[in-house]
Design goal:
mainly alpha; 2 domains
Length: about 200
Amino acid sequence: MFGLKKQNAMPEADESVEETQARLNGAKSAPTPRRKDQVAARQRPLIASDRTQAKANDRQRRAEQQDRIRRGMATGEEQFLLPRDRGPQRRFARNFADARTCIAEFFFPIIILFFIVSIGLSPLLGYQGQLATTFSMYGVLLLVAIDMFFTWRALKKRLLTKFDSVERGVLWYGTFRTLQLRFMRQPKPQVKRGTKLE
């Protein structure tokens, strides 16, 4: 009696999932392979015999993984983002900054242009020209500060409306994103300029 149970139980242990499913459905296309044949088919050597090919495969696998992480970061997929970029409030702050056209975005190109003009063309400008360039640079700086202040206030108002609270650091995060040129921002902008956020 016990021998009969054991004999009936052995084939079930040797069957794969597909074959078990086929048997339950009343169909079997081929005899069940033996356990040792299945184990042998799944075995892989710990150290590959061809070390050069193994290194090439490992290099390709790492490159594909890094490319997937890079694409995930660029598109804003939560699992690939850095800790500073994660969370619904930070996502909203990014979209808020990307939907706006701010003077702050063009601050660094304008400052670089002022430096080139004031240093490279200083003999041609003279004292009055250099003074005018310096005051103009400070004027741009003041405009950027005012623009960032209004961006800060608008972002805070929208965050309080949408989330009822503001997480620490989110206002700085969203406001300073407007200082970066659009094509240099990471994660990449997911909304177009002028988009109305909900």
